[in-house]
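User: Structure tokens for this complex, please. No commentary.
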Amino acid sequence: MSRERVSLVTLGVDDLRRARAFYEAWGWVVRQAADDIVFFQANGLVLSLYLRSALAHELGRDAAELGTGRSTLAQNFHTEGEVDERFKSAVMAGAAMVRRPARTEWGGYSGYVADPDGHLWELATNPFWHLDDDGSVTIPHNLPGA
Amino acid sequence: MSRERVSLVTLGVDDLRRARAFYEAWGWVVRQAADDIVFFQANGLVLSLYLRSALAHELGRDAAELGTGRSTLAQNFHTEGEVDERFKSAVMAGAAMVRRPARTEWGGYSGYVADPDGHLWELATNPFWHLDDDGSVTIPHNLPGA
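Assistant:
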């Protein structure tokens, strides 16, 4: 059994209605919800929006010390057009533009948006990795630098 | 084609050698590496460790403003014994204990550790969700509250 896994990604949010509304407007479909948490099913893992105060309580920390930005989530696509479209749809749903999509020096195409709570999403193509239609990625074994 | 996806999770780290050593000691296997980034293959998504200064540059932000704690990653397991074992192995690899594993009020079993850069991992069981052997989870459609 493989132990290398990410089963859930949980994003702490200040206003669950606002956060849920953003993700629904961006195209995510709620699979399960409670007063302080909402769950979306993704490719083999779950994305959850969790009230920041509840997350802080669960962690035994002060809500004010929980920061964002040092980690990012990415959605990969096959084409630059899809990246542009998903970037535009995020902004139309209420995301802040962080960096417009552009060619990268490593040969991909990438842009960043921030959700209403500051959580960062990269929207990208990476021609060197295998991408399934559900967004799952696999790194080839035979790449240099491994 | 499904658009709800998390293709990558990227963690900004201050010392790539230290961060890589922690994850390798915890059982992750590097699939690809460069000077400022390391990639691990997980269940349909990639976990990457990326030098915080490079991430900040990519985001057009100051490295000092990038915080942690408002998002968490989780690894789900079938048994409480596996959670305890993964918790212990994380601590032995250099993680900080945030909350020892304990029964939760919603019927699971969960503990938290922080990696050397402060990124939070929850180790948990959730008897209400389907868990594949690779750590992928699926939320049933017929749950209350959906």
